[in-house]
Amino acid sequence: MKYNRILLKLSGESLMGKQSYGIAPEMLEQYATDIKAVVEKGVQVAIVIGGGNIFRGLSGASKGMDRVQGDYMGMLATLINSMALQAELEKQGMKTELLSGLAIEPICKEMSRRRAIEAMQNGRVVVIGGGSGNPFFTTDTASTLRAVEIQADVILKGTRVDGVYTADPEKDPTAKKFTTLTFQEALGKKLKIMDLTAFALCEENNLPIYVFDMNQPGNLLKVVSGDPIGTEVIKG
Length: 236
Fold this sequence. Notes:
single chain; two-stranded antiparallel ribbon; 19% strand
């Protein structure tokens, strides 16, 4: 395996499947199946999921809601998604640990580096909800923070596109895909991979980002095995 410990970042929207809102059971099943295949290869896995399929703090703020209140609502949305994925993982026979930036007993324990690493070393899939536990930070930034904390080898950003392109490939058929990029190249080209805070944290800690299509069954195992199917962003 190319990676021994990964932080898998999933968007909340990806859980919608073909729905316009909420959680599609078939997406949960597919993701859990792919995660199980990686765990069975001995890879330690932590997961952070966004909450955009349920609520976004920024969208609430744009309509007049208090930003802090909206961000906390978004954090709770990520926790709902995390609980749903945890349930599906356990349904498929995996041991899990649900941690959160917001401690909510009896649902989950508060995120701590030591607790997460110990759980992974004991063969558990660690699902981390609740964002960073603070408003004004995206789940991109939260996932980067968690990856640095648990000393992950890489952030795997699972999307519905098979990598990073010169333009949106769903809108521009002439868009070209990058195989590798440096952080500075990505910033110079204004490629929207993660928000700037997350990006800076990755670069500072020499933490690579790998962008790939998570909606294609089996792709997660391919990435962890070293198959070049997506785009890797590395320090130059």
